[in-house]
Amino acid sequence: MTQTPTTPAPAAGTSASPTPTTTDHGPGAVVLTPPGATPELVRHRGRWLHGWKPEDTDQWQSVGRVVARRNLGLSVFAEFLGFAVWALWSIVVPQLPAAGFALTPDQMFWLIAVPSLVGATLRIPYTFAVPIFGGRNWTIVSALLLLVPAGALAWAVQRPDLSFSVLLLVAALAGVGGGNFASSMANISFFYPEREKGRALGLNAAGGNLGTAAVQLAVPLVIVGAAGVQLERAGLMFVPLAVLAAVLAWRFMDNVKDASTDPRAYGSAARQRHTWIISFVYIGTFGSFIGFSGAFPTLLKNEFPGMTLSIAFLGALVGSVARPAGGALADRLGGARVTVAAFAVMAAGTVSAILALRSGSFGLFFGSFLVLFLATGAGNGSVYRMIPAVFRHGAGDDADRARRAKVAAGCIGIAGAVGAVGGFLIPRGFAVSTTATGGIEAALWVIVGMYAVMAATTWAVYGRRGSAFGDAVI
After folding, report:
1. CATH code of the domain in which 88 resides
2. Among 107, 159, 201, 465, which residue's Cβ finds the most Cβ atoms within 10 Å?
3. pLDDT tens by residue, 78-97
4. Is the dihedral of CA 268, 273, 279, 282 positive or negative?
5. Domain-located, residue 288
6. Count of CB atoms within 10 A of residue 421's CB?
7. Are strands 255-256 and 48-50 parallel, antiparallel or unpaired?
8. Together in a domain, 145 and 247
9. CA pair distance 255, 360, nearest whole angstrom
10. What is the pTM of this model?
């Protein structure tokens, strides 16, 4: 119990000096702020923070920044593992034939696509889990949940006689890793003041995205053993890492008592047409990133069988690193302009990949996809920058600005979930194209057309001078 000592009563005839207040915060409570500081920040049992006020300059500079950075670092680690497990099947699927599985191209693309669909669906409930259970507590739970898809994969890949439906169900379990992004972003948003929130969320998102690149780099190295390809190692490698993330979160992360997500903000955002326009655009940027990240190793294996899969990680790596850069560029030039430019580069990269397929040039194909990944990452950052600008435009008094900020937060949650659906649509598009035409070129042309539509939509609604936003930089 933390208790401020009292001073003895003054002697008769003397003036009384102020007497410090005796404060009983309960058993196990620790006062984090310096003596006499207000607002007082107290950590209670279960690492619940009471009085967390990141907008208060004194609290932020004295203890707040240290607490926020510690939670951010551990959140990035947990989200990194979530993305890695989410993308695990993207690098395992091309190896399944070597493990004795007989799968059609359509079945292989199903195994890649389903985790993305499940992850997209889980993003909304994962967002609400943070204010209900606490960010620290939910990080522990979500990290331990990764043991389920990791263990199931290790079991399944050793049984080539499994039916495809069972294999598909096991792959779907990896979707729990996709939900981690939403809960991690929601949690970190409570720890930072508005002036630093964009940078913190950008680092959190980029750190998580890097999990996709890391798993595609590590798995081809880990699964090679003395007995040949040992795919079960791809799942088992995450068991100690998930336990470590849970232990670190239990020991060092915090819950914010005053954190709250207003469910009505999602309802308000869902009634705004801009929420669905932005979600449609985000399918093109983030959906392309996660969809191409999932399909890229299989595309390399199918189109250029002689090339090693260990280089596939470079695509996701480039896209992850480009995300914060895209956000920073959007801060200077405007999110709409950067997003339109990103779609133009994405379309050019896709057309270049089509030409590479026709000529059989691996170098051109690989380089085209690196450009494509670069543009998707930049577009992810610029779209997220657009959201607060769109909903802030035309705001009135402080109450109106606060209401609009909540709607923008709801839009971010909805767009994040809808955008992730692209991770399902792109692999399924490749499957349909391969089944109907014998190759992926038809699907790539459809994607080019979608980029043109999305770029035109972004420009017409948010970038055109004659739009409802006038000369505002969105």
Report:
1. 1.20.1250.20
2. 201
3. 999 999 999 999 999 999 99
4. negative
5. yes
6. 21
7. parallel
8. yes
9. 54
10. 0.86
